[in-house]
Amino acid sequence: VMSITDAACRRLMGMEVASEFYGAPQRYILGASESAFQDAAGNTKSAWETYIGRVLALERDEDGQVPTVGQFTAHDPQTYTKI
Predict the structure, then answer these.
(1) Which is nearest to 25 in space by CA: 74, 61, 60?
(2) pTM
């Protein structure tokens, strides 16, 4: 019985990690200037601040090109939910 309980706990822990880590799709920005990732004082924001705070506006580069913004598909949780 203990081995079954341990296996169930491992599966639930794996589901929890997958939902937190893979549940939100990853995003990318190509061609953005460094100022998009800096605060008002010019200090570089952490990756967490940039991701959670979102980038609300992006400037055109010196050639007038708009940065490319996109998103990868989120992880399929079926690996953990389908038995």
Answers:
(1) 74
(2) 0.52
